[in-house]
Amino acid sequence: MNITKEHLAGLLKNDRFPLSGKYEPAWVIENEMGPNALWLAEWLCERVELKPGMRVLDMGCGRAMSAVFLAREFGVQVWANDLWISASDNLRRIREAGVEDRVFPIHAEAHALPYAEGFFDAAISLDSYHYYGTDDLYLKYFVRFVKAGGAIGVVVPGLMREIDGEAPEHLTRKSPGGGRFWDPAECFSFHTVNWWRRHWAQTQLVDVLLADAQQDGWKHWLQFEEAKVAAGTNRNDDEIPALKADQGGYLGFVRLVARRREAASHDAD
Ligand SMILES: C[S@@+](CC[C@H](N)C(=O)[O-])C[C@H]1O[C@@H](n2cnc3c(N)ncnc32)[C@H](O)[C@@H]1O
What we know:
Bound molecules: S-adenosylmethionine
Strand order of the largest sheet: 3-2-1-4-5-7-6
């Protein structure tokens, strides 16, 4: 880390997310995999009711920071499921965070989840669901692991307005670092609030309780990217010029919260 603890704490200070502010800034930076997972978790959990003892799936938990956060802040049990990060790697972090009795690391791909139907009281996913959940058929698979009446909550990087055709030039132009924010092969999984609401509602498997965009989402995103660059953990600062040029015109965070309808029997698909 290039900077002092105090400097980093100043860069990460954000009064919009007071619960996240309790966590060690160096830990948050060392374990980041994109936007600030704690800020996303805190925003989501303002609208997902979590009570002590509930069983929660954290889908695509990355380095399990959000799983630790959920266990500590809400007293829930968390199955911290990820693909790119191994369960052993996450177990070490979970132990160090002192929540080994409540957070269980699992290595599993999103289409091959090793859980019983209806096992979870709630399932959440932060900056991950857009990698697999844009498939029209995915919710039918995913929702089975949540009990009837249980909550499903997702935050994804998304669009404030849909892009029809080519992405705008300020998202595709080369940054001083030589990269680009907008990789068409990936970023066309970014969608608007309305796209996501319809994507879930049309399945009739869930009632969509909430679909909205984070107020000033792009500013929070930019703040965290700038902190990463200052800390020296992110040399690739392609996001910063794009977020600055965009000013929230297209980029931000989308939140979706739904309740599973009565359990439907699933074929072995
Ligand atoms: C950008 S990272 C975000 C991680 C974490 N939620 C966070 O906010 O720090 C996306 C995560 O989604 C997970 N992911 C992507 N595709 C997946 C898949 N097909 N099955 C399971 N997890 C997947 C990856 O393992 C990765 O950790």
